[in-house]
């Protein structure tokens, strides 16, 4: 590995000479700065050309970055909470251009964490670790086509998936006990909702506002009556069938 060393000036600025060479994959730059009689050094590594590594990965190319970023994957190293607004596309450009998202191992997703990923068509959530999805976490994914809530998830906050207008199918896992107000508002193209929990989740007002009239809500056959009479579910009783 080639190593290039430079010293920062009093303003913290520095220039590194590569001896006529390009700064390429796996090379390292060491920058040393002195202040008040002490020195600090940092190491900067050129990005590797090897694909598939890193905490945040993507399937696309670096051409006109991030316009062609493709599907973003958050690796299993992100195995705790994802903070509010972490990848909110109204604030971060990656979410504006990504075509999909895979989250491997997070335990909770904060409010508006992935809001307004308007070009993403697919979403894969952790199968076993995720427990909570906060308010507006995936609001306005206007090109998303299907939502699968894993069996580990216990709650979805208000407006959690509001205005995902192209979704045609939703599956709600077995542990989901709480759905916030307006969580699935605006699903005007949804043909099917599969509810796997035997007991109807507590649902906030208007959680299925503007649901497609012909949408079929499938619930456990033994729980059909419970769903048809549950608060805020009852408005959609005529759409329900036991399976």
Question: How do the strands and helices of this protein lay out in sequence?
Answer:
Blueprint: E1 3-7, E2 28-35, E3 38-45, E4 56-58, E5 71-74, E6 81-82, H1 94-97, E7 100-103, E8 108-109, E9 122-124, E10 132-133, E11 146-149, E12 155-156, E13 169-172, E14 178-179, E15 192-195, E16 202-203, E17 216-219, H2 224-229, E18 240-242
Parallel strand pairs: 1-2, 5-7, 6-8, 7-9, 8-10, 10-12, 11-13, 12-14, 13-15, 14-16, 15-17, 17-18
Antiparallel strand pairs: 2-3, 4-5
Tell me the number of helical segments per DSSP (H or I, 4 or more residues long). 2
Based on CA atoms alone, the radius of gyration comes out at 24 Å
State the low-pLDDT regions, or none.
48-52
The side-by-side strand order for the widest beta sheet comes to 6-8-10-12-14-16
The overall average pLDDT, rounded, is 88
Strand content: 25-35%
Count of strand segments: 18
Approximate helicity band: under 10%
Shape summary: elongated
What order do the helices and strands follow? EEEEEEHEEEEEEEEEEEHE
State the secondary-structure class: mainly beta
Distance linking N and C termini: 62 Å
Largest sheet: 6 strands, parallel
Descriptive keywords:
mainly beta, six-stranded parallel beta sheet, five-stranded parallel beta sheet, 2 helices, 4% helix
